[in-house]
Amino acid sequence: MTASFAQDTALDSLRQRWLEAVAAELPAALELRREVHRDPRLSGAEEPTAQAVERALGIPLERVAETGRIGRVGPATGPSVLLRAELDALPVREATGAAYASTTGSMHACGHDVHLAALVAVVRAARALPLPLGLVPLLQPREETYPSGAQNVVRSRALSRYAVSAAVGAHVHPTVPPGTVATGAGVVNAAADEIEIVLRGRGGHGAYPHHASDPVAAIAHIVLGLPELMRRTVSPMQPSTLSVGHLQAGERSANVLPGEARLLATLRTTTHADRQQFQEQVRHFVARQADSYGLEGEVVVTAGEPMLSNDPLLVGHMDAWLERCGIEPTEPMRSLGADDFSFFGEVVPSVMAFVGVQVDGHAQPPPLHHPEFLPTDDAVERVATAFVCGYLAAVERQEG
């Protein structure tokens, strides 16, 4: 018997025992899901959620990134595999009609309650198993807002302290067919940055525009010019986009020319070179437009998440384990969305798996962040299975 065959047999036996133990943990995990969903907490205020999940896990955890938690089960030393679940909810008023619906004006409209419950089932099931590598559960805060919780975890050096050699994320997604999981090697989410542009001039009376330096026309030309700037900067073969989400100039008056105008935009890119080059081109473009109108222009770029890129070796191993579990790996779910799980991928090999789900009463599930997005309970088991497969894939990658 070759060493690789023996390892594969041992891991497959571990998979079967683990999933059987997960099944026994599901009733309690579903109750936790309802508890967390009923009382959602926004980014930065997740402490009650973290405490509830910590109690359910029943293992020692260390505080990280303010309201987050991190711990370890399995071998106390040596490499480990991080499994991430997010703590925060969204400022969305729930409209699901569920018996455990939130009534606070906030909602777990992105499935984080499912991820937390699945992680608890996986970790509790693993406690009595002979894990070959450490398993590090991370309850991560502030996935939905800045400052990024994942970035804070990385900066805390927690990954080094826990000897993390790979990171696994699993996220429910309504566009992935139910019963399937999408992985895909390479970039699956974009880098996300916010751009603020401010034009300052000299206000005046609408009847005497020649006595003013009106920023309104200039900001309008910039809004219309930004897509053209993207077209002339980034290859059409590289997915990217810039969208203006906020535009403001002056007060509600028809005959007062304002002295200032501003816009806020989100930039999404899929290569580091495009990200840097487009930001530089925006600065040049705004400076020239402002100068041509006799204005001062300012550009402030707030760096967000880097690109989320799945490690090819992890993806290959994980897809094979998913198939053994009767789950079909489907086409990669690539988008210009963003997830701060990408910060982990800059430090260790990582994989983000998108898990197909159903929503009762909807032939076509509502999108993420929608007030009616509520995956059915079987999503907890599906996400848990994806976590187990990701862990086993990381073991194979580590041991070669």
Outline the structure in words.
By secondary structure, this protein is α/β, with parallel strands linked by helices. The protein has ten helices and 16 strands. The chain has an eight-stranded mixed β-sheet, sandwiched between helices. Strands 10-12-8-13 form a four-stranded antiparallel β-sheet, covered by helices on one side. α3 (112-126) links the parallel β3 (80-86) and β4 (134-140). α1 runs antiparallel to α10 and α6 (215-233) packs antiparallel against α7 (272-292). The two termini are 17 Å apart. The model has no long low-confidence stretch (mean pLDDT 96).
What are the main properties of this structure?
alpha/beta, 16 strands, 24% strand, elongated, 400 residues, 4-stranded antiparallel sheet, 8-stranded mixed sheet, 10 helices
Secondary-structure map:
Layout: H1 3-38, H2 47-57, E1 61-64, E2 68-71, E3 80-86, H3 112-126, E4 134-140, H4 149-155, H5 158-161, E5 164-173, E6 180-182, E7 186-189, E8 191-200, E9 204-205, H6 215-233, E10 240-249, E11 256-257, E12 260-269, H7 272-292, E13 296-303, E14 308-310, H8 312-324, E15 328-330, H9 342-345, E16 350-356, H10 378-399
Parallel strand pairs: 3-4, 3-5, 5-16, 6-15
Antiparallel strand pairs: 1-2, 2-4, 6-16, 7-14, 8-12, 8-13, 9-11, 10-12
Helix pairs in contact: 1-2, 1-3, 1-10, 3-10, 6-7, 8-10
Cα(first) to Cα(last) distance is 17 Å
Assembly category: single chain
Shape by Cα distribution = elongated
Taken in chain order, the helices and strands follow as HHEEEHEHHEEEEEHEEEHEEHEHEH
| Helix share, percent | 25-40%
- Most strands sheet: 8 strands, mixed
* Low-confidence segments: none
* Alpha carbon gyration radius: 24 Å
Structural class: alpha/beta
